Amino acid sequence: MVKSSGGITGQPEGTGGATPPPGNQILRLLPRVALDAIAPWLEEVGLRVGDSLFEPGDDVAHAYFPLNGAVVALVLPMRDGRAVEAATVGREGVIGGIVSLGHKPSFARALVQIPGRAARISVSRLETAKQAAPGLHDVLICYADCLTAQVLQSVGCAMVHPLEARCARWLLMTHDRLQQADLPLTQEALAEMFGVARTYMTRIAGALQRRGAISYRRGIVRVERRELLEEAACECYGAVRRHFERILPGLYPTLEP
User: Fold this and answer.
1) Contact 114/69 with Cβ under 8 angstroms?
2) 245 assigned to some structural domain
3) Predicted model pTM
4) Does residue 247 lie in a domain region?
C-alpha cells in the first residue's frame, strides 16, 4: 500500500532537537519536546492514488501525517458499492490513531485521493510519545475537535446544499492544501466521492467552468479565479476554516503569496 523511504529525522544547526518534516501543519506547530518525542520513530512513505491506508474494521496500526500534496479521504462504503466521503485530511492534519487507546478498529476507509508523501508512525510509538510529551496529546486533541467539526459540517452540507456549492467547497479546501492552481483530480474521482453519476459530475464541473472559476483538462482541475470559486461555495467552507483558527491558530493552511 505505502512505500517507506526510511527515517526523516534531522538536527537543525545550532538548535538541537529534531527538524519537523516539511509540509505538515501539525508537525510544524508541535512544541519542541513533543516533536523530539516522535521524530525518532517517523518514517516517510509514498501514497499512491487509490491506496487504502485502512479499511472498516481494521486495527489502525499507523498514524499518517500527510506532507505537501497528499490528500486522504475518510469514506464510508455502502452495500450497493458506492462510497461517500465523510472528511478529507491533507497537510493540516493526521489520520489514524489520533486519540484512542488500546484496540483501534476503524469505522471508515482511509483512501488516498491525491498522491504524495506522508510521515508515518506506529500507533504504539505515538501512544508512548503522548505519555512522554503531554503537549503532543494536547495538539492532537485540538485537531480531533477540528476533524469532528469537518465531519459534522459535511453532514449538514450534504443535506441542504446543492452539489455545485459542495463541489466548490471541496475544491477550495484542496486548493488550500496543495498550494497550487492545478489539482490532480478526475471527474470520475469527484463523482465517486460525492456518490453521484459521472454524467452529473460533468454537468457540475461544466457549470463551474462557465462561471470562470475553474478550467478542466483530462485529470487536472485548474483553479482559474479563486474568488469566483468562493462565491460558488456554500458557507460550510468558511465555517470549517474559522473553527480551525479558533481551536488551533495556524493549523489550517493559508495560501502563500
Assistant:
1) yes
2) no
3) 0.88
4) no
